[in-house]
Write a structure and sequence with these properties.
The chain has about 200 residues and is mostly helical. Helices cover about 35% and strands about 5% of the residues. Strands 1-2 form a two-stranded parallel ribbon.
């Protein structure tokens, strides 16, 4: 019931309703002895939202937190089952965390880490088909001329031109002060499902 209320409230938000903000469902603290994962999967399918999988209830998260670690910091043989459950989630998030770099981007932009977040050899996680990822992300041919690169949608350097002041010259020299909201309406609105 709470998941349905959460989904209904999220769908009232313009970015979610228009499709600019993508949703996925993850089962949290699922007991493998029950059919909760199958129930969530069927519910997600009825909504047309991808079900990325269940995350089991385990003390590994608590023990890791007590040591100031995550399961990704542990040796793979200690967290293999949990890393396998996280693999589809990490795979789904990768395009948002590490967007493809356009040919005209500088080399200093954020890149995916060299070390993989999940163990690929010892576990067999479910992966999104490559053709789905490539259709969504597209590719940028390496043979574009500089004038063509500036016309590619999402080219991050296309806004700069020879006649403009470089962005580094526009940055303030002192740290900006943040204005604190004085009324509830000044700050971001907290969704109702988070207030419960």
């Amino acid at each position: 019931e709470s998941a349905e209320a959460c989904h209904a409230e999220l769908m009232t938000m313009p970015r979610v309703a228009s499709g600019r903000c993508r949703l996925a469902i993850v089962g949290m603290r699922i007991d493998a002895r029950t059919n909760s994962a199958q129930t969530l999967d069927a519910w997600a399918e009825s909504l047309g939202v991808p079900f990325l999988g269940p995350l089991r209830e385990t003390q590994l998260y608590v023990r890791s937190l007590e040591r100031g670690l995550t399961i990704f910091d542990l040796p793979p043989h200690l967290a293999a089952a949990d890393l396998a459950q996280w693999a589809p989630i990490v795979q789904w998030l990768k395009p948002q965390l590490y967007p493809p770099q356009a040919a005209n981007d500088s080399m200093s932009l954020i890149r995916a880490p060299a070390r993989s977040l999940v163990q690929k050899q010892s576990v067999s996680p479910l992966k999104a088909p490559d053709e789905l990822v490539s259709k969504r992300l597209g590719t940028l041919p390496g043979s574009l001329m500089p004038a063509q690169e500036s016309m590619v949608q999402g080219g991050r350097m296309s806004a700069l031109s020879a006649g403009r002041t470089p962005v580094s010259a526009l940055r303030p020299t002192s740290a900006p002060t943040l204005r604190r909201p004085t009324r509830l309406t000044d700050g971001p609105q907290i969704p109702q499902f988070l207030k419960r």
